[in-house]
Prior knowledge:
23 helices, 67% helix, two-stranded antiparallel ribbon
Amino acid sequence: MLGTTVIIPTALVPQMGGGNEEKAQVIQTLLFVAGLNTLLQSIFGTRLPAVVGGSYTFVAPTISIILSGRWSDEDPISRFKKIMRATQGALIVASTLQIVLGFSGLWRNVTRLLSPLSAVPLVSLVGFGLYEFGFPGVAKCVEVGLPELVLLVIFSQYLAHLIRPGKNIFDRFAVIFTVAIVWIYAHLLTVGGAYNGKPPKTQASCRTDRAGLINGAPWISIPYPFQWGPPSFDAGEAFAMMMATFVSLVESTGAFVAVARYASATPLPPSILSRGVGWQGVGILLSGLFGTGNGSSVSVENAGLLALTRVGSRRVVQISAGFMIFFSILGKFGAVFASIPAPIVGALYCLFFAYVGAGGLGFLQFCNLNSFRTKFILGFSVFLGLSVPQYFNEYTAVAGYGPVHTHARWFNDMVNVPFQSKAFVAGVVAYFLDNTMHKKDGQTRKDRGKHWWDKFKSFKTDTRSEEFYSLPFNLNKYFPSV
């Protein structure tokens, strides 16, 4: 979890005007809320071992709030607090979208039309679409990132099968072993003066003492709602954040499908997916109330971790959520873990995101790959899913604003943000084509693999659904899954 939990505040807090102390506090809050949301999702939501944490999807509308120009005359700390309160207001309003779509059952009706064919581009690009956070992150400090990547592959794929097979020591603990080894190695390089006099960018990426987080973090601090003050509301910013929420909803749907696959559960019944989306909306509401500066969605890296460790236990994830809450309250401990250099996290992403992408490709086994309809939908959606966001990102990098550039900043965000998400573009294109092209043809249903998922359309049609997805404390009686 330390990847997104540290990287997002590290990027956003200095732009808001905050210093090391504020950065440490936001990291603590993000980790605390991630622990709470993970517990809620695994107990009352989908009941899958899905970790819920910060999301890169919400970064763009947050930056838009930072750049709005309303805060130029403020001193840095006052500016930071006002921007944080504006972000809180936007998140609180935006959370209603997922809460309504999830708990009303509307999202259930949408996902009933999802087939293995339309799930392939969606789930694959939830993983593969995050490629820019993989090796480019490793290359920021190649002498630290590359050893982590090589060691992780050796430990998880080679040593696991060479040394005492069947004990599962190396595949289950590969991440902990390799991160500890490379972290110590990076610390020795830092202490030995290898980065003294190097450019600031290199020092920021490579050093283990770079962040000033340990000094900034208090020993004990419990995050609480409205810790930055009462939230402020702006209709335009709320609409822009609402669109980011919808994008994260589509991406999280793909991540939930991948988690169910790697946790060896049956395909998610639409009603359970809708329930999970509703609780994810509650998670975004909590993010707004506590002031994380970022919304919540299913953690893609932790979906990949299920595949790497082969541990799909709900209990393990709940205990992990307890550790997240524990380390967020003991600020100094959390800050020590946050000193892991970012290239180590980039190396982990290379495996985790790859596993999620491969999980999406796994659904091809249910489709007829000899059908030209299948080939067209698959190729066209994946190509557009990569090509359209590339255009939007390149345009933004050169011009400093997106292709849609009007005087209404909120409208620009509402259009530009969705088209920068690879999984969103690919998923929407595949879903639309799959549900509109030649549907009356009898062979089409088999080509798209729909007949494999038919028996999971309802919660009650498979006896195993009770084991995987039924609510605790006999709550199914009051909240039936239809």
